[in-house]
Amino acid sequence: MTQLASMGGDTSADFDDAGGGPTIAPTPYELGTPPGVLDPEELRLVDAWWRAANYLAVGQIYLMANPLLREPLQAEHVKPRLLGHFGTVPGLNLAYVHANRLIKERDLDAVFVAGPGHGGPGPNACAWLEGTYSELYSHIPQDARGMQSFFHQFSFPGGVPSHCAPETPGSFHEGGELGYSLLHAYGAALDSPDLTVFCVVGDGEAETGPLAGSWHAAKFIDPARDGAVLPILALNEFKIANPTILARIPESELFELMRGYGYDPHIVSGDDPGTVHQAFAETLETCLDKIAAIQQQARSAPSELGPDSSAPAWPMIVMRTPKGWTCPPEVDGQRVEGTFRAHQVPLPSAHTDSKHRAVLEQWMKAYRPEELFDDEGRPVPELLALPPTGTRRMSDNPVANGGMLRDLQLPDWRDYGVDVPAPGVQSHEATRVLGGWLRDVTKNNPTNFLTMAPDELASNRLQDILEVTGRKWEIGEGPFDERLDRSGRVIEVLSEHMCEGLLEGYLLSGRHGAFTCYEAFIHIVDSMFNQHAKWLQTSAQVPWRRPIASLNYLLSSHVWRQDHNGLTHQDPGFLDVVLNKDPSVVRIYLPPDANTLLSTFDHCLRSRHYVNVVVAGKQPQFDYLSVEDAALHCARGAGIWEWASNKDDVSTLPDVVLASAGEVPTLEVLAAASILRERLPDLRVRVVNVVDLMRLLPEAEHPHGMPDREFDTLFTATQPVIFAFHGYPWLVHRLTYRRTNHNQFHVRGYKERGTTTTPFDMVMLNDLDRFHLVMDVIDRVPALGARCAGLRQEMEDARLRARTYTREHGMDDPAVSSWTWQG
Amino acid sequence: MTQLASMGGDTSADFDDAGGGPTIAPTPYELGTPPGVLDPEELRLVDAWWRAANYLAVGQIYLMANPLLREPLQAEHVKPRLLGHFGTVPGLNLAYVHANRLIKERDLDAVFVAGPGHGGPGPNACAWLEGTYSELYSHIPQDARGMQSFFHQFSFPGGVPSHCAPETPGSFHEGGELGYSLLHAYGAALDSPDLTVFCVVGDGEAETGPLAGSWHAAKFIDPARDGAVLPILALNEFKIANPTILARIPESELFELMRGYGYDPHIVSGDDPGTVHQAFAETLETCLDKIAAIQQQARSAPSELGPDSSAPAWPMIVMRTPKGWTCPPEVDGQRVEGTFRAHQVPLPSAHTDSKHRAVLEQWMKAYRPEELFDDEGRPVPELLALPPTGTRRMSDNPVANGGMLRDLQLPDWRDYGVDVPAPGVQSHEATRVLGGWLRDVTKNNPTNFLTMAPDELASNRLQDILEVTGRKWEIGEGPFDERLDRSGRVIEVLSEHMCEGLLEGYLLSGRHGAFTCYEAFIHIVDSMFNQHAKWLQTSAQVPWRRPIASLNYLLSSHVWRQDHNGLTHQDPGFLDVVLNKDPSVVRIYLPPDANTLLSTFDHCLRSRHYVNVVVAGKQPQFDYLSVEDAALHCARGAGIWEWASNKDDVSTLPDVVLASAGEVPTLEVLAAASILRERLPDLRVRVVNVVDLMRLLPEAEHPHGMPDREFDTLFTATQPVIFAFHGYPWLVHRLTYRRTNHNQFHVRGYKERGTTTTPFDMVMLNDLDRFHLVMDVIDRVPALGARCAGLRQEMEDARLRARTYTREHGMDDPAVSSWTWQG
């Protein structure tokens, strides 16, 4: 650092008590008028707006009263618990005010993504200065009273979080967990040709894996059809307690890294506000010029992909300014400004320690609030006039509030259904059938529906989508590539984080999509899912937030069919993670065949503001339900399959209920029912299938929850229930433990017994196979037991035979694999 | 691609039936003798070994009989299900054989990490050629019979997975999920100054976030004290169905990226084996020379960190060779070699289609097995003599089998315990107390214990460790940094993936460590945890695998104390993820105070082959148990706290059991017990605390599981149990649903109600507060009810008062927060 602006010099509160209200004078840190693209007047105003935003940020962190410091600062004005992060705020505010200047000058349609965690006071302050805050929250007008409420609510019980959140006007990126800013920014830019996303990336979050990988997201941006992202890497050197990697490597190395990622890096560096303002203003102009040139060229002469294609070198900015810039340089003899100590609250004892409080007062007064706010506490007219107006304000841009949302044109899924002459006889690959429908969804919605896959689109059998589009790709094409396309409607990249993050950005700005993934590896984005679910939960409580399209997962290549991948690829536990989130925003579906999958996915694409998890098979599997029956069954979510039941009618209780949820468990339940029907023809067997897992929950716990009475009708209040479940078995107990008949629920599922083996061997390893289910029935139905010892032994023998066959032949015994339902 | 070696030319099986056994002749692809560092004889042998490894890889994928092709290839020789990935194998084998040459020449202590997924056939083949496979698996001798078993078992039911796995000799890196190869490699290199890790990174996995971030791991490698990693980026251009990003950006851009990451990149590119052999041999020599020079310089004159410090530019290799190199160039008129179609099985119908089978036979014979294996099927003497011997073989290096493991020198935790004159009166920050002990653990074990944190060491109150060491850091130091050190014993980087991956590599090679993380964000590594748990589970079944030290998580900054971070930082669901893994390898502890935390962590650091999850508080919290009591309580895992119970003795049943697990729930349970004692002095209240969550499971389901009899003694078989739990409440139901008294379990926990608020407001939001627990008791104990309507109302009022106070003052009502236990 060459020279730090002294902020503590002039502490005299110099209220203009003459008529005419305050005017904005030169700053105490001798702003000067360094030459540059800003004329002195512009510079003065930009700086004043920046000072105001910084003042409002400090106020949020510290004050609960006396917002304009018009009384001497007392302990009771300062919050008892000081919570918030100032370190990154001045950088955010700097980027914001300069973005505003060019939005106005160029009439840009722009949004702002604040990547640095807990930088909330910055964007909050900007939104208040722009007036949006007061428009959305009537208790926070743009005056002294509003300022007081605005300060008070920040990181205060019942108030707003310290990071950008659903409550933050103009934000569509939660600042809680780090690493996803660029992905959300690029996701919003997709299919938004006129949008510019200013995305500030923290140098802390830049260390995360997801962020490190996501710089490559620019390679999926088509300058002709998509908008632009301008990444601004905020290099303020410090995290909570440590320096950051990118700040400590030589600048030349950082530039190589950015060029290696495909960017054209620019740097703005310094700690003198005037100089930095000029440099940032000029650099921003240059970058926006370059973006415009890239887009203009692509839009005037769109080019095909070819061997020498390369994504344009999009500009990006490295903004190297001090951590906690403009905060007290030293506190208690320790350097603060420009160090990790400025990360959070630079004066942690301001409530209790009068010396800290005096420094706080000096610090805040150094921004000269008396010039920035009038007697009523309103921003002075010059400041009010500075930002753009209406929806050109980034805090009011509808894009940040799902504003691009419109309904999908969905073809009738019934037209894509398979004929089912009889249940359990013909087979289809369920996801392949769905792919046919998704192909036409893609075709019908050419600018607002995308499918994401980590190199697994075809592996999960959705390749029919590629009949109408290609895979989005902007860099070199080789002679043996297939279906790459600059404007493709499918994004494939071997990063679950990137698939998830781009889709989230796309949804949050108001579009639709699906993410297809191997079931086990969706755990890679557990934490991103958590954050998105929390965003949905909270934003549903924010009155001005609009519902967005649901996040739809299609998980295939699931636990039961990892024939050669083995244990590492066997994990159905994402369902357990999903169930922990607020019931109002999560849904789980386990369609057992092709037609139920179609019906389910149609429902998901029509829904709003949920996370829908659909687990489906990609291998050939029996069709059970006709289109009509599938529609009915999915509407019910769970129901009796009378055709598969035996001697079951409403007038008498069944001896046993065989229930299933999931493709493979349903097959085994039906095979078990078939054995029972043949061998114990008098046994009353009810077969129940569950598509919508949330139906199992009590009515009070989930909107889809089944009333007890209905549940008891389905599963009985007294009879044994053998439940074959797709995932970990205890999940069903977790859903049903309040039910009357829970003690009779006996659940089979995946219990972490896996390896490289055949499908039937897998179900045997986990005691989910048909033979074991029959044994379970014998063990649980009191009337059976000893009478069926012979049948039980036969089942044991059948398991042994099947196991031996598999070990010898490397495939399932045809006696098992060629089974079909005999109606 | 300039020129592809023709592999299909000579298909005549030319067995040497004259005396003297086979000799290795020139290859059919006209190896030639391009000039280079290998003399013609060396080149011939290196190439022969490579051919042998490739042959053995193809054999694994296709054959179940006729391994040496000494009979015409028939359908019954070919596996009915062809599973495996050939695409990446020739590259892996190339790197392996060249590494071997220099291991021998320079007597290197080296291990091999195969990053590309499903490349298992390659390292398997190398281990078989080196003899290790046969030494470890007696049913797979190094002859024709062994080769047949070796082929047969691959991706076959009851056999081995298609990727590197615990069963793979010399592997400590599971090849199932992608993205962690560099982290495991660097983790193994830490504190292993003489170790060289050859780490092949797939260009597919290079797209993942974790891998993209982990290139920076070199910045934590001290050339004086740590070993070296040589990354070899296998750029074969394709994933399952798509090109890779790094293969399609200009080479100059890729080089900038690698230089930006801090490396000194070298490239070997081509498809002519002879030329590539020469180039790779020479490049490998150059890189190892550079590594040696870096290490020699650092070790001869160790330097302090300073402003201009920079990590050395470690060499790395870009290896650009065709996907499926040496496989049939075309199949069914479609290009295969060098395209994504070579990713998995190039001839998918070889079992059923005689034309495919004929091509397979040609392909395998083109490696000329008759020169490579003698009449008995043993590798010919020249091949046997080629690799290094004993533990210099990478397949037999003990490092890859936890070989560096030795016990930790643990100071007696009792000496670090806090004095507890009476329970619930004095307070300590539990993790701060633990930090004192960990400081001395660190000091006592200067080369085999590391602590990892995503910038949260001090935030989680473990800063005392920094009294004896610094934070490991090899790049520039600034004037305001604190406790950075080239040889620090703490690694802080804002990437949970990097913390986890480095620690895994460190543990897998036989060292010890801990990972401290914010509770909510440990979800970021859910999937890495899953994979590590699966590795532990499987490796415990592999007889020659040694147990390794446990992976110890210390989760703090937990759900109940996110005062200013709010909902985004509130997620205790990692416990649910952990519980899904095999019970033999997972443990969860919830110590309620400082001494129990000490005792727990001591136990964890002594344990082997587990994942231990410890959730503890960092804020001041009451001490309850003396050192002696803590030791006893932790040994039991769960027990009655008699001092907190009321009128509870063994001869009579309590009226109610108040149980807790976790710091904050325990506080609330004690406060509730205190209210009940005062207000309902005749009520028999038993207070139970659970430290070891697995104790709740049935005996048959977990090694720590409590027998039913003991469980019923603790929780009764008939009385209401109000259970206050740290995490999501249904988790306790999942653990206890089989117990006699489960219907009487009433669990309070976190139910996704969170925001920016005070600690007591948080427990109120989730009905876990003391007042609500008292209400629960009134509602559940039949004898109370109407008689206690007044008390119930008081509790409601107390909640309202507390809530109002918080909203007004921004802090908890002192009436609540100043509560202490009155014994």
From TrEMBL, chains A, B:
<dbReference type="InterPro" id="IPR029061">
    <property type="entry name" value="THDP-binding"/>
</dbReference>
<dbReference type="Pfam" id="PF09364">
    <property type="entry name" value="XFP_N"/>
</dbReference>
<keyword id="KW-0786">Thiamine pyrophosphate</keyword>
<dbReference type="InterPro" id="IPR009014">
    <property type="entry name" value="Transketo_C/PFOR_II"/>
</dbReference>
<dbReference type="InterPro" id="IPR019790">
    <property type="entry name" value="Xul5P/Fru6P_PKetolase_CS"/>
</dbReference>
<dbReference type="Pfam" id="PF03894">
    <property type="entry name" value="XFP"/>
</dbReference>
<dbReference type="GO" id="GO:0000287">
    <property type="term" value="F:magnesium ion binding"/>
</dbReference>
<feature type="region of interest" description="Disordered">
    <location>
        <begin position="380"/>
        <end position="400"/>
    </location>
</feature>
<dbReference type="InterPro" id="IPR019789">
    <property type="entry name" value="Xul5P/Fru6P_PKetolase_ThDP_BS"/>
</dbReference>
<dbReference type="InterPro" id="IPR018969">
    <property type="entry name" value="Xul5P/Fru6P_PKetolase_C"/>
</dbReference>
<dbReference type="InterPro" id="IPR018970">
    <property type="entry name" value="Xul5P/Fru6P_PKetolase_N"/>
</dbReference>
<dbReference type="GO" id="GO:0016832">
    <property type="term" value="F:aldehyde-lyase activity"/>
</dbReference>
<feature type="region of interest" description="Disordered">
    <location>
        <begin position="1"/>
        <end position="29"/>
    </location>
</feature>
<comment type="similarity">
    <text>Belongs to the XFP family.</text>
</comment>
<dbReference type="Pfam" id="PF09363">
    <property type="entry name" value="XFP_C"/>
</dbReference>
<feature type="domain" description="Xylulose 5-phosphate/Fructose 6-phosphate phosphoketolase N-terminal">
    <location>
        <begin position="39"/>
        <end position="404"/>
    </location>
</feature>
<dbReference type="InterPro" id="IPR005593">
    <property type="entry name" value="Xul5P/Fru6P_PKetolase"/>
</dbReference>
<dbReference type="GO" id="GO:0005975">
    <property type="term" value="P:carbohydrate metabolic process"/>
</dbReference>
<keyword id="KW-0456">Lyase</keyword>
<protein>
    <recommendedName>
        <fullName>Probable phosphoketolase</fullName>
        <ecNumber>4.1.2.-</ecNumber>
    </recommendedName>
</protein>
<feature type="domain" description="Xylulose 5-phosphate/Fructose 6-phosphate phosphoketolase C-terminal">
    <location>
        <begin position="618"/>
        <end position="821"/>
    </location>
</feature>
<dbReference type="InterPro" id="IPR023962">
    <property type="entry name" value="Phosphoketolase"/>
</dbReference>
